[in-house]
Each structure stands twice: as structure tokens, then as C-alpha cells.
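As noted in the main text, all predictions were made from sequence alone. Below is one such record, for Response regulator transcription factor.
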Amino acid sequence: MKKKDIKILLVDDEPDILEIVGYNLTSEGYQVITAENGSEGVKKAKKELPQLIILDVMMPEMDGIEACELLRKNPDLKNTIITFLTARGEDYSQVAGFDAGADDYITKPIKPKVLVSKVKALLRRYKEEDVSDTVKIGSLVINRDEYKVTSKGKEIILPRKEFELLSLLASKPGKVFKRDEILDTVWGNEVVVGGRTIDVHIRKLRE
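Prediction:
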């Protein structure tokens, strides 16, 4: 993934922090999105689906800990790296951040060069954890980026949900997925469906 395609969401109630950090990251070629409190940050994260979120801990309306907990419940952000901005020596904030689901933390006062190096390291972690756009199992090829499936070189047209189901099952061959896990990953909160619906889609895939 190129830098210009990487989105970083910066959430802080201090305008100076937004300006300084935003400037340094933009200068590196990243897309930077800003929010002034946790509530706004959660909304923008759901809309923009950034690769990295930098959260301040103490903010009005919704603090960083609560925001992080909400973000970690969103399946669309499961691969997003979340790091906190904390004052040096704030052990409680760091522990609470990790408990909420954060991956790392950056201490204040912020040093631009250290910040940029830290961000690069965090994004390398994202790249390592990110799944490949293409999955190959025998003669079956699944291209997640283009929503395309081919078998023995012949393209197979699948409805979106059946494609997502196939993509999930193929991501970890041999694993037995629980129904709740399939529902959460493929359907999320968009509609209430039962186990029968999963059975129907799986039967169609086998055909």
C-alpha cells in the first residue's frame, strides 16, 4: 500500500496537536483526517476506515478509552492500528489504553522525528497483519479487491454475500467457523439472519 493511500485519523481536542502532528504526517505523504473529540473520532473512523488511529486519552464528550472500546467492536476496523497519545509517566492511561484494545502509545511532548518513525513502525505492523487481496486454493482464485472468483480460469459470478462468505471460509482453510463468527463477519449488524440463512448460502457455494 502506497503512502498516499494510507489514512491516519488523528483525534485530539488540542488544536496545536492536530496542527503539528497533522503537518508532519501530511508532509510524509499520508492522508490525515482530524477530529476534536472521541465521539467525532468514532464517527469519522466508521466512515473513513483508516489504517491507523491516533487517540488522545483525555477529551471532552467522549475520552479516548471509551472511543477505543467502541472502535474495537466494529468489525470493519478489526485490522486498524490504534495508538494513544499519553503524557510521559501516565502509567494508568497506558494500562487502561491497552485494556481497551490499543496496540501502542506515543508519549507527549511529541517529537516530530520520533512520531514519524513510530507511525512508520505501526503501519508496517498493519501491513503484516493485513490479509492478501488474493486467495488461491487449488484451481480456485478469490480476488477480494475486485470481488472476482475464478475456477480453472473461468470466472464465477456470485452475489456479494456469497462472495464474502466464500472469502471468509477460504481465508483459513481447515478452520471450523462458528455460526456467530460468520454472522458477525459477513452480515454484521445490517440485518437479523438465522443459521438457516447461512446453510442456504453454503449449499449454493457447494453447487
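The chain has two domains: 3-129, 134-206. The chain has a mean pLDDT of 83. These features were considered when defining construct boundaries for the mutagenesis experiments described in Section 2.9.
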